[in-house]
């Protein structure tokens, strides 16, 4: 049996171009959605993970979250929830903009006193914080599908990390406005096991 032909360089360039155009559209849609939210309502969202999701989180799991940008779905309350439940919490850590993504322990989420600027100006643990390998990762996204496909920021950090840790569980956090019917797919794109929005839990897949 003959398998499918590998994608040509032209196909790869076209897919990358489509993804970049989608990112621009979805970032604008996400920003408009978040700016339209009442701040009091926004403060009540993503306070704790939905109960059905907890079945994906083993009792001894190390859990990674992320420091959200201005319009990303916030993950700090999830960090506090799992920290209080006895889990070790990790955040992405970068030695430089070109270095591979690592994870280091966030000792006291969601307080920022234990964190310092990363190469992009977001907060990350100090360089001497314990390096961890998460079992479950709550990941940011630009777009997603109801089947668990994810469109990230375009840097490929999470996809490269998951390529070396395929057994880790990836769960997306996003706004309802970030849902799309389909996304272009490449071999290195890592699927999500679930996606959480303020109104729905997609999956587990």
Model description:
With 205 residues, this protein is of the alpha/beta class. It has a single domain, classed as NagB/RpiA/CoA transferase-like (Rossmann fold), CATH 3.40.50. It contains four helices and eleven strands, in the order ααβαβββββββαβββ. Strands 3-2-1-6-9-10-11 form a seven-stranded mixed β-sheet. Strands 4-5 form a two-stranded antiparallel ribbon. A two-stranded antiparallel ribbon has the order 7-8. β2 and β3 form a beta hairpin. It is globular and about 40 Å long. Mean pLDDT is 91; it is low at 1-7.
Average pLDDT score: 91
Question: In CATH terms, what is the architecture?
Answer: 3-Layer(aba) Sandwich
* Main structural class: alpha/beta
Walk across the major sheet and give the strand order.
Answer: 3-2-1-6-9-10-11
Distance between the termini: 29 Å
Low-confidence stretches: 1-7
- Give me the CATH fold name: Rossmann fold
Domain module tally:
1
Provide the helix percentage.
10-25%
């Amino acid at each position: 049996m003959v398998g499918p032909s590998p994608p040509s360089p032209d196909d790869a360039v076209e897919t990358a171009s489509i993804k970049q155009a989608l990112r621009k559209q979805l970032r604008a849609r996400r920003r408009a959605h978040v700016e339209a939210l009442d701040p009091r309502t926004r403060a009540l969202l993503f306070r704790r993970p939905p109960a059905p999701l907890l079945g994906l989180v083993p009792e001894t799991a190390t859990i990674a979250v992320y420091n959200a940008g201005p319009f990303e779905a916030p993950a700090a309350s999830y960090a506090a929830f799992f920290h209080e439940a006895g889990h070790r919490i990790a955040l992405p850590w970068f030695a430089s903009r070109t270095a591979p993504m690592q994870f280091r322990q966030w000792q006291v989420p969601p307080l920022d006193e234990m964190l310092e600027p990363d190469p992009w100006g977001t907060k990350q643990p100090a360089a001497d914080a314990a390096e961890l390998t998460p079992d479950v990762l709550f990941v940011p996204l630009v777009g997603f599908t109801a089947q668990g496909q994810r469109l990230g920021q375009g840097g490929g950090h999470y996809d490269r990390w998951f390529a070396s840790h395929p057994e880790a569980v990836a769960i997306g956090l996003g706004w309802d406005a970030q849902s799309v019917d389909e996304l272009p797919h490449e071999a290195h794109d890592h699927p999500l096991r679930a996606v959480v929005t303020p109104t729905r839990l997609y999956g587990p897949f």
